[in-house]
Design goal:
Blueprint (H helix, E strand, L loop, with lengths): L9 E3 L5 E3 L1 E2 L2 E2 L1 E4 L4 H8 L4 E2 L8 E3 L2 H8 L12 E2 L6 H4 L1 H17 L7 E5 L5 E5 L8 E4 L3 H10 L5 E5 L9 E3 L2 H15 L9 E5 L6 E2 L2 E14 L2 E6 L3 E4 L14 H4 L3 H4 L12 E3 H12 L1 H23 L10 E9 L5 E7 L9 H18 L16 H4 L2 E6 L3 H20 L1
Parallel strand pairs: 5-6, 5-7, 7-8
Antiparallel strand pairs: 1-2, 3-4, 9-10, 11-14, 12-13, 12-14, 15-16, 16-17, 16-18, 16-20, 17-22, 18-19, 20-21
Helix pairs in contact: 1-11, 4-10, 9-10
The protein binds adenosine-5'-triphosphate.
Adenosine-5'-triphosphate binds next to strand 12, strand 20 and strand 21.
Amino acid sequence: MASSYSKKTILLTAYGRVTSSTVDGRKINFCTDFDKSIVVNSFRRRGWNQVSPDEEWNIYWSNTVNCRNIFSIDNGYRLNDRQIINHFPNHFELVRKDLLVKNIKRYRKELEKECNPLGEKTEVKLPSGQAVTRYLHLDFIPITYVLPSDYNIFVEEYRKFPQSTWILKPCGKSQGAGIFLVNKLSKLKKWSRESKKYLQHHLTSKDNYVISRYINNPLLIGGKKFDLRIYVLVASFRPLKAYMYREGFCRFCTMKYNTSVTELDNMYIHLTNVSVQKHGDDYNSHHGGKLGMQNLKLYLEGTRGKNVTERLFEEIQWLIVHSLKAVASVMSNDRHCFECYGYDIIIDDNLKPWLIEVNASPSMSATTVNDRILKYKLVDNLLSVVLPPDGIPDARWNKTPTEEALGDFEILIDEDSMYARELELARRESKCSRMKTC
Ligand SMILES: Nc1ncnc2c1ncn2[C@@H]1O[C@H](COP(=O)(O)OP(=O)(O)OP(=O)(O)O)[C@@H](O)[C@H]1O
């Protein structure tokens, strides 16, 4: 690729930035593995030129498999300074259900060993009167075990809380596929016997399941369960630079929440995935069962008060930052990479947020008009953050976006910037003083 970048065609983006659409007089080339109009049009609107992955590209919106191939040693492909790509090669450390849990458990243990106050534990009294030990500051994932390897530890935990419901999720699948709820060990054993028959010849880590304590007291609106989808952009893991998009949304179940045992298999009550709910009789294709995050905030301020709502959103930011810190040391922090993660969060009726999972390729298709507007803005805004001020992809750039370029993204953490470090410190202090008063 040419080494001089002098000739520029100037464009103005939605974020008011003057950017270039050319590298050395030729158009910036993008390629993508998705023929999603939102992605392709967002790139074209910048005056960029679409090429195929085997041509000279500057920005690649790839799927996770092709990204891994690009970074594979066998491939021998070396990215140049004018190439950036939308995944970190080992993103699975954060997005695979079993690895996310493993990394968070390791992170908490390390903090505990270092006697870091964040690793502090406390005894909690459950409504049943039982006392259990929990992390004071980092108890943000439901208790989870990996099957088959953790089966015996799970059984121990199950016996302590025989009234609990558990949710089983296959590590290698998405969109609600293969998920089911159990409240009896006998049901789990039956499933295990049957799935062993099916899996015994091809058991790989992809066939693992996680079994998590089911959050059976979700916050309900209109009697229905929902989860929150939040977009988090990571520009770098070391130093950690992460941004949260203000316009997330809630995804609602189509049927009213019901904890009755006879409804345990009813996925229209328990799973909030749009891919599941859109098949329900009561699915509304106009709003798609979605409510914007800003509307959720207004609803909570009205029903629960401003302070608790603010606290909830601080807690959400806290859990995102610490989930990222939990994987930062194991991520291959290639400077050509950035990644937009879809965080799935459930809020319980005590307004405690729980991290359910993280997606590396959050859907860029739109189910409603509002969805389309949101995702167009998201992709355009995201490009403004990951590109240097002149708009030309540059892996050498120090990844410090201007306030204007941030648009609807807010800084979650930037270990490079004094301001962002102070923000993080303030967040930590606010969290600690809150925990002490609880
Ligand atoms: N521990 C839990 N407690 C309560 N509900 C849960 C729990 N875990 C998952 N769920 C529900 O099940 C849904 C699917 O779970 P999850 O997102 O982990 O699986 P998935 O099939 O991989 O989804 P995706 O397509 O988002 O990757 C969640 O959106 C949530 O509604």
